[in-house]
Amino acid sequence: MTSPADRPAVQAAAPRVAVLGGGIVGLASAWALARAGCRVEVFDDDPGGGASFAAAGMIAPTSEAAFGQEHLLAAGLASARLWPDFARDLEHCTGASVALQSTGTLLVASDHDDAAVVQRHTMLLDRLGLASQRLGTRAARRLEPALSPRLCAGVLLRDEHSVDPRRVVRLLLAALGSLGVQVRPTRARPLLAAARCVGVVTEPGPGRPVERVEADAVVVASGWSARDVVLPGLDLRRAVRPLKGQILRLRGEPGLLTRTVRATVHGDEVYLVPRPDGEVVVGATSEDVGVDTRVTAGGVHELLRSAVAVVPEVAELELVEATARLRPATVDNLPLVGATGTPGLLVAVGHGRDGILLTPLTAQVMTAAVLDAPAPRHAESLDPQRFAAERSPM
Length: 394
Ligand SMILES: Cc1cc2nc3c(=O)[nH]c(=O)nc-3n(C[C@H](O)[C@H](O)[C@H](O)COP(=O)(O)OP(=O)(O)OC[C@H]3O[C@@H](n4cnc5c(N)ncnc54)[C@H](O)[C@@H]3O)c2cc1C
Prior knowledge:
By secondary structure, the chain is of the alpha/beta class. The chain folds into two domains: 15-59 and 166-240 and 332-387, FAD/NAD(P)-binding domain (3-Layer(bba) Sandwich); 103-159 and 241-329, D-Amino Acid Oxidase, subunit A, domain 2 (D-Amino Acid Oxidase, Chain A, domain 2). 28% of the residues lie in helices and 26% in strands. The strands form four sheets. It has an eight-stranded mixed beta sheet, with helices on both faces. Strands 8-2-1-12-19-18 form a six-stranded mixed beta sheet, covered by helices on one side. A three-stranded antiparallel beta sheet has the order 9-10-11, with no helix packed on it. It binds flavin-adenine dinucleotide. The site of flavin-adenine dinucleotide has 41 residues, from helix 1, helix 2, strand 9, strand 13 and strand 17.
């Protein structure tokens, strides 16, 4: 647990920072800023209730690698390397375990066409110099005996992790509490005056009047809804869009699987992420349907059908939860993290499918941007200015 001696000394001149959004990105940025000595307040009427609530928690830059996405891959690899220290610091600060799982990812395929997809991915990893280990079906089943004997192809990616994002959010809230950072249960928007950001204006609520809160820096970390924040010079509506994901939580005895399994099943992608307590997360749909968080029969059916084809025993697990949330996607699949061009106003939005993976790197980049310190590597590719209103996207 954080003792008073561990707490950063907050100087009277320390910057006051308002963070709009208490998802994993906003909370981790707030925590990093508070540890760097800033006076931080977070604003969110439902902290942890957005995309971070749904996320499976794969920290999986190599399984997510795709042609033409080299910047995202480089940022993802860098952030994955930061995760063990990030988890350790959070454990030190809260006295609770993050339960980071570092057992890797197994890629499998259900027929020969699917095997070709897995093979193409492995060739891409080879070309990028990223380690993968090809396994026969038998070797894959020796690692994970619950896999269906009908699968073909197996590839082991050893350097990937997973984590329960809900647990991380809980611990970040506890860590912020121990540093005296308030999370105020209200939404807010940036307050601009004379072409700079001078604080935030809270949304009115029952018995809660509008309030103006001064800040030296405001960080917009409000996930997909950042697209509704009107900023001078930065076109967030063009940059960010909601991308629906449906996901299931199942429960059985611990040990059905020991690592994340990602499969291509007759052309459909599915993943199964096991937790140490017996939970198995099955995800996820990817639907470009605007602002819609309904769980549909078709979405649940599709996920369960694919998951049972990969691990037949999934049919025996208890279906505990079906959830849908909106990923904050961007047109170039990279988040926007850093200064906006309006003094005092920064953004950390647009983390798409990879917000859990990219959290530690985002918190570092954001801290450097607020304190005007040298930017960490990879910060340049996340620069929000690529969506400056008068410029075209990359
Ligand atoms: C089904 C699914 C599975 C996923 N799996 C993975 C995975 O395995 N690995 C991975 O890396 N990523 C995964 N993701 C992506 C990941 O969840 C997101 O990229 C990440 O959670 C984004 O975090 P965030 O804090 O930016 O947004 P959010 O978690 O959406 O948080 C935004 C917050 O802002 C608040 N807010 C909105 N407007 C305002 C306002 N005006 N003022 C104040 N607060 C406001 C909201 O209440 C919310 O709490 C998955 C996403 C989905 C949907």
